[in-house]
Design a protein that fits this description.
The complex is a heterodimer. Chain A is of the alpha+beta class. In chain A, about 30% of the residues lie in helices and about 40% in strands. In chain B, the strands form four sheets. Chain B has a six-stranded parallel β-sheet with strand order 3-2-4-5-7-6, sandwiched between helices. The chains are: A alpha+beta, B alpha/beta.
Chain lengths: ~160, ~575
């Protein structure tokens, strides 16, 4: 089963390699991983999408916790949360497909961020499912390049989580 | 007054109470070695960095203190890796300090540069690259704290040469604050209550003890707990000496080369109380058939150990001392029920006694050739109670576990998780450095011994009177045994065809060498060896194709033991 896990870590040299090494060394799967500093510049927040049965997911969260540089681990699966991903998609926009590409972008509330006589670059944001759907619709027009950020998530509600407890 | 980085490092070690370190100098640690002369720290120069780390490991195992090793960058650092991995697998508290090329050169493929932090990441509990001299005291303080607390383990500190040369005011922090590291030491009282209920309801309980008991020095608590409920106790290799083998409740070791009665007891048990153990594959055999009737209580300081390999009915995360004390206290609240339980377990203990009677630990003795098991039994007879035994890895290691009756904790130092040949001699060196007055004996095979035999020089140089028992069968015996049993006796590359003259080898280093192939001389040679001052090799030319029995073939269930060779 797919799980989205947020990990708050020390914003230190080598932390990313500790996390990714943990996944590769123990044979855990990473579908995506995104990382950037938080409001507190001494910490970074990672969003990891992984999959596995309950026992594997339990090991993943425990093993993440065990790393000295890990401050907090939350598995959002089963929780109420907002999940967003960004994609930059370069599509062919020749005479025949130019208007169609625009229409599709519009339907998905995506923006055109770069234009050439033969291409559009579309910026889209949304749930990973929405990005998947957009890609499928654009595929027949001709996707020249696709970049996805991997999702980031935040819990719903007024409460936020801070670096220190 | 300002101090240099290398002086600050040594000040920190002194503050941590470090008396002895093991190491090997080189270009990027030359400043540390220069300042070492002025500090009250005893340094032992091993002949290889791997041995320095194993020696620090042996020192830590024999004392419970944090072992410290020091090596230079590049090849010095890479040579430490096996030692670090060995300590990591057995959760040994250790700080390894490596020199590094100057920070400005890092990443430039400088002379003797290697990314030792990257290389050792999977085998260290944590590691630090010191980039600023002002961080150094905090890092050393944290390194020692992390190494010895929670589930212990090795921590590596990589110290670039320019940081060693830089200067700063020295101030040692008195507190450690690591927001991501707060080991949970208190067992949850509600879980303990549940455990007591499960224990009181058990008909066929077995206490299965691992290295955690040794590491946390809780053998007394364990003994109290076992005697209170009168339940049988089986130990892993790592816990061997933490429960007296001669105790009536002792089943000896379980697992691949465990006793018949320990393995049968586990397979028939209805409650397995795992204490500081991690259900290693050498312990469980085939997982799907392991302890099929048992509910499992698992007590461990490390949450990742729980439910990693087996399903667990009741997890208790916490320090063993706290959990065992609470368990005992909780049980003592209902003395009548505990007494009833202890009495009700009589048929179970009887069943185990029957298994023990039908299949005791034994071997066929001989008057014409030396049986390796006989050497181990005789060794027990002639050694002190508090003698420290180290081993290498292989048949001799298993025979030592099977036939030496350990009675005191921290007297059996062996490489359990990683299974490192060449561990025994340097770890004996470390143990002897910690306990100059005690008997320290490395039980070795001819194969393993040659993996770190250069350390004879260190023993002689520092007058460390380690005694070495070599069970010489001219084979890599354990692999040969597997080839015999599972590969149609095709002995591929396991025969050590060149016979080594171990007596001459000992003499070449200035040590004493004794050798015999006569069973009648075994005791006399052992006695003479132990009485001889300084390091001594005692070589026993043993029957060559003796097997370690019982044996659970890899991938088989614990009740599918091979009982005769």
């Amino acid at each position: 089963m797919r799980h989205t896990i947020s990990v708050l870590v020390e914003n230190e040299f080598g932390v990313l390699s500790r996390i990714s090494g943990l996944f590769s060394g123990r044979g855990f799967n990473i579908e995506s991983l995104s990382v950037a500093p938080t409001l507190d510049p001494t910490t970074s927040r990672m969003t990891i999408v992984t999959s596995g049965d309950d026992q594997v997911i339990e090991q993943i969260t425990k093993q993440l916790h065990k790393l000295i540089d890990t401050i907090k681990v939350i598995d959002f699966t089963g929780e109420d949360y907002v999940e967003r991903e960004m994609a930059l998609i370069k599509v062919s926009a020749e005479d025949s497909s130019r208007a169609e590409a625009l229409r599709i972008a519009d339907i998905f509330r995506a923006k055109i961020v770069d234009v050439t006589p033969r291409s559009y670059t579309i910026e889209a944001t949304g749930s990973p499912q929405k990005i998947d759907a957009l890609i499928e619709i654009l595929r027949p027009i001709g996707i020249k390049e696709l970049v996805r950020s991997g999702p980031v998530v935040v819990g719903r509600g007024a409460k936020g989580w801070r670096s220190a407890e | 007054m300002k101090k240099t980085g290398s002086q600050i490092l040594l000040e920190c070690l002194v503050q941590e109470g470090v008396e002895t370190i093991f190491g090997y100098p080189g270009g990027t640690v030359i400043n540390i070695y220069n300042d070492l002369i002025d500090y009250p720290i005893h340094h032992i120069l091993t002949r290889h960095e791997q041995a320095a780390v194993h020696a620090a490991d042996g020192y830590a195992r024999a004392t419970g203190r944090v072992g410290v090793a020091l090596a230079t960058s590049g090849p010095g650092a890479t040579n430490t890796i096996t030692g670090i991995a060995n300590a990591y697998m057995d959760s040994i508290p250790m700080v390894v300090i490596t020199g590094q090329v100057p920070t400005a050169l890092i990443g430039n493929d400088a002379f003797q540069e290697v990314d030792i932090i990257g290389i050792t990441r999977p085998v260290t509990k944590h590691s630090y690259l010191v980039r600023d001299i002002h961080d150094l005291p905090r890092i050393i303080k944290q390194a020692f704290y992390i190494a010895r607390t929670g589930r212990p383990g090795p921590v590596l500190v990589d110290l670039p040469k320019d940081v060693q040369i830089a200067t700063a005011k020295f101030e040692y922090p008195d507190k450690v604050e690591i927001r991501g590291y707060k080991p949970n030491s208190q067992g949850n009282p509600r879980q303990i209550e549940k455990a007591v209920k499960m224990i009181l309801a058990a008909k066929r309980p077995v206490i299965y003890v691992g290295g955690g008991v040794t590491l946390s020095d809780t053998s007394q608590e364990l003994l109290g707990f076992a005697e209170l409920i009168k339940a049988p106790v089986t130990t892993t290799l790592m816990a061997m000496a933490s429960f007296p083998k001669k105790h009536p409740l002792s089943l000896g070791m379980l697992g691949m080369h465990g006793t018949y009665y320990a393995n049968m007891a586990v397979m028939e048990s209805d409650l397995l109380i795992a204490i500081g153990a991690r259900f290693d594959d050498r312990v469980t055999g085939k997982l799907s058939t392991f302890a099929p009737h048992a509910k499992i209580i698992h007590v461990d300081i490390d949450p990742t150990s729980i439910k990693k390999n087996v399903r667990v009915d009741l997890p208790i995360v916490g320090d063993l001392r706290d959990v065992l004390q609470k368990l005992i206290a909780e049980l003592k609240l209902t003395p009548h029920e505990v007494k009833t339980l202890a009495d009700d377990l009589a048929p179970w203990r009887e069943q185990i006694a029957n298994w023990r009677q039908t299949q005791p630990m034994s071997y066929t003795s001989s008057t014409t050739e030396i049986k390796p098991q006989f050497v181990i039994e005789t060794l027990r007879k002639v050694t002190d109670d508090d003698a420290i035994i180290t081993t290498e890895v292989g048949q001799h290691q298993m025979w030592t576990a099977q036939f030496f009756d350990f009675s005191q904790p921290r007297t059996f130092l062996t490489s359990g998780g990683l299974g490192t040949m060449g561990f025994g001699l340097p770890s004996a060196l470390g143990a002897q450095a910690a306990w100059p007055q005690r008997q320290v004996i490395d039980v070795s095979g001819d194969g393993s011994f040659q993996m770190n035999s250069q350390e004879l020089a260190t023993l002689v140089q520092y007058r460390l009177p380690v005694k070495i028992v070599i069970l010489n069968n001219n084979f890599l015996g354990m692999v040969r045994q597997w080839q015999q049993l599972f590969f149609d006796q095709r002995y591929s590359q396991t025969c050590m065809e060149l016979p080594i003259d171990f007596v001459k080898l000992a003499e070449a280093y200035g040590a004493t060498g004794l050798s015999t192939s006569d069973p009648a001389e075994v005791e006399a040679v052992l006695r003479k060896g132990l009485e001889t001052p300084g390091p001594v090799i005692m070589e026993f030319k043993v029957s060559r194709e003796e097997n370690v029995i019982p044996m659970v073939p890899a991938g088989k269930g614990l009740n599918e033991m091979v009982l005769a060779s």
